[in-house]
Amino acid sequence: MSVSTSSSTSSTLSSPMSPRVSERPVMLDCQELTRVYSEGPQDLTVLDRLELTVRAGERVAIVGSSGSGKTTLLNLLGGLDRPSEGRVVIAGEPLSLLDEAALGKFRNRYIGFVYQFHHLLAEFTAVENAALPLIIRGQSKKAAEKRAMQILERVGMKARADHKPGELSGGERQRVAIARALVTDPSLVLMDEPTGNLDQTTAATILALMDELAKESACAFVIVTHDVGLAAHQDRVLRLEAGKLVEQPPAP
Ligand SMILES: Nc1ncnc2c1ncn2[C@@H]1O[C@H](COP(=O)(O)OP(=O)(O)OP(=O)(O)O)[C@@H](O)[C@H]1O
Predict the structure, then answer these.
(1) Which keywords has UniProt assigned to this entry (predicted)?
(2) Ligand 1 center from residue 228 Cα (angstroms)
(3) Which atom of ligand 1 is found nearest the CA of 40?
(4) DSSP annotation of 218
């Protein structure tokens, strides 16, 4: 897969990748990111001036105990929620400068999401679901479905492409959701437990696909997971603790 060259940022990124991660362009940058929930009787500071930088082609796992704020962080990174303070910058664009309409376009252009509840459309087949982001972007149904079929093949779902979500297993639906996230050649993919429903063999296929994408394109991954094996497979593992990310050294 290659990153589309329709913007200046992406065209920079589609040139051969520097082998050294530290020399690659910054794809995601969070500074002083703070999220305080004020809905309950007491304010709850879930993220507290958190810092995170992820470069092109880099894969970062985020781990942390239940309630530590992993979902809150992913929602802020994807522009689904706004921070109380601080900022999220993706591919050079501060999300705070975008209104809701511009944010929707930006997400479609730059971000792929794989969330625990994959929200596939029940009335659409696997290939129609996977093609949807491209159709929203203005591509013809034919071109979008052709591209979607290529990705479905890579996640081992070509043979089931004409089935609707209700006729697919949990793991198959997850793979369709992954195909839908990758179909646009995003700059950043945000994943919440991407292998949660998958058996070991299928999970290994998905891991291999992520490896290829990170190498072939400039795609950066942020992956929230409880799966120790999946986390250890990424370039870095960060633990969310007391509202901040701390580097977790590799297991001995
Ligand atoms: N809309 C909200 N209003 C108030 N509190 C919230 C809201 N959303 C989440 N929280 C609280 O913020 C904290 C972090 O929640 P979050 O869902 O981000 O954690 P998590 O690390 O993803 O947990 P898990 O691993 O269990 O999914 C929790 O204490 C949760 O109860």
Answers:
(1) ATP-binding, Nucleotide-binding
(2) 21
(3) 4
(4) -
Two tokens, residue 132: 């949807």
Residue 106 domain flag: yes
Beta bridge mates, 142:
none
173-to-108, 180, 205 alpha-carbon distances in Å: 20, 10, 15
Q: Is the CB of 64 under 6 A from ligand 1?
A: yes
Is ipTM strictly over 0.90? yes
Alpha carbon 205 to its chain centroid, in Å, reads 17
Report the distance separating Cα 14 and Cα 218, nearest Å: 7
Domain containing residue 225: 8-247
With a 6 Å cutoff on the Cβ, whether 98 touches ligand 1 is no
* pLDDT, tens only, 109-144: 999 998 876 689 999 999 999 999 999 999 999 999
Indicate whether residue 69 lines ligand 1 (CB < 6 A).
yes
205 touches ligand 1 (CB under 6 Å): no
Q: What is the number of structural domains in the chain? A: 1
**2, part of any domain:** no
34-41, Cβ contacts within 8 angstroms, sequence gap of 24 or more: 34/83, 34/84, 34/85, 34/86, 34/243, 35/69, 35/72, 35/73, 35/76, 35/81, 35/83, 35/84, 36/84
CATH of the domain at 121: 3.40.50.300
CA distance 159 to 157: 6
Query: Is residue 160 in some structural domain?
Result: yes
